[in-house]
Amino acid sequence: MEGNTVKILLADDDITVRNTVSTVLEMFGYEVTTVPDGRDVIALVDDSYSVIILDINMQDMGGFETIRVLNDRQSDIPVLFLTGAGSMEYVVQAINLGGYDFLTKPIDDLDLFNVKIKRAIEKRSFILRERNYKTSLEKEVREKTKELENNNRLLMTYSHSLENATVQLMSSLQNAMEEKDYYTAGHTVRVTEYALMLGLAMHLSEKDMVVLRRAAQFHDIGKLVIDLLCIQKPGKLNREEWELIRKHPGIGANIIQPLGFMEREQFIIRHHHERLDGEGYPDGLKGDELDTLTKILTVVDSYDAMTSSRNYRRNLRMDEAIRELQLHAGTQFDKDIVEVFSRSVPNFVLSFSASV
Fold first, then answer.
1. Architecture of domain 180-355
2. In the chain, ranges of CATH 3.40.50.2300 domains
């Protein structure tokens, strides 16, 4: 509808009927377009019309065929059928096709005729209001969604900044610990490099690589609260000292626990001294209870421990350490991970040594 003008599209193949009905409609103040056939309705109809009036029986395209095409086009303009037949069969078919009402010809009751037209116009007005409300609502939803997306981006940026700041702080604490202990100095860096090398060789996802890197960086952070004299002691540890050292995975996990964004890292840090056969610590997990990233860290941490110097034993050569990993594959270590590590580490060590 344009302004207050109500446009009606009328189709009847009888020119006398068209003229008579259009005269009545214009008398009531409506703007009328008349056509002789349903095909003309299909060609002319647009959203500016409030009501469509169709004769049921027209020579080329009748009213029922016309409304089927309108339905296929998802037209929501109310359709009134103009007929002199008035049979129940027509009524049922018209209702099934979504017809709004009937107008009889000739027009005997002008008031009833106008009431039916007005009801159809009100129906059209309701449809347009509902459509406008839906459009307005969808626009508001899009705007709110965009606003939420912008806010979420800001929150994500803040969250990432907070995560990075937290990781940097923890790295500083880790470095402080390593500076006090000649054994652990460089251990974390090497374990992290080995872990990333192995993760790439195993084609881990980018997300898993981030988790693996963080877990490797902080796997020994629990040693921050352990007496360094125990860690640095020359010779083998006694039972009490060994029990103290065994607490560092659990302590490290507790340090990480408040950081919600490092939930997976917390699990890996706590269990990087577990074994496939369940003989590890602190929880005696075994087999599939350990995830792939934990199994990776277990292998690379053990390898670096074996190839690093200790007061009470000599460090193993690379080939000796690999044989030791292979010897315990299936009991302490995952066989597949040991196999990939054994193939990958020789070239990695050569390239790493060349870059230092």
1. Orthogonal Bundle (1.10)
2. 7-136
Strands 7-11 and 101-104: unpaired
Fold held by 7-136: Rossmann fold (3.40.50)
pTM for the complete prediction?
A: 0.54
Q: How far is CA 343 from CA 46, 187, 231, in A?
A: 72, 21, 32
Can you read off the two tokens belonging to residue 306?
Answer: 């074996």
- Please report, in tens digits, the pLDDT of each residue of the chain (356 residues total): 444 689 999 999 999 999 999 999 999 999 999 999 999 999 999 999 999 999 988 988 999 999 999 999 999 999 999 877 556 677 788 888 889 888 888 888 899 999 999 999 999 999 888 888 888 888 888 888 787 777 677 666 656 666 666 666 666 666 666 665 555 667 888 999 999 999 999 999 999 999 999 999 889 888 877 765 665 666 677 788 788 888 999 998 998 888 777 899 999 999 999 999 999 999 999 999 999 999 999 999 999 999 987 655 678 999 999 999 999 999 999 999 999 999 999 887 655 554 54
Tally of CB atoms within 10 A around 62: 18
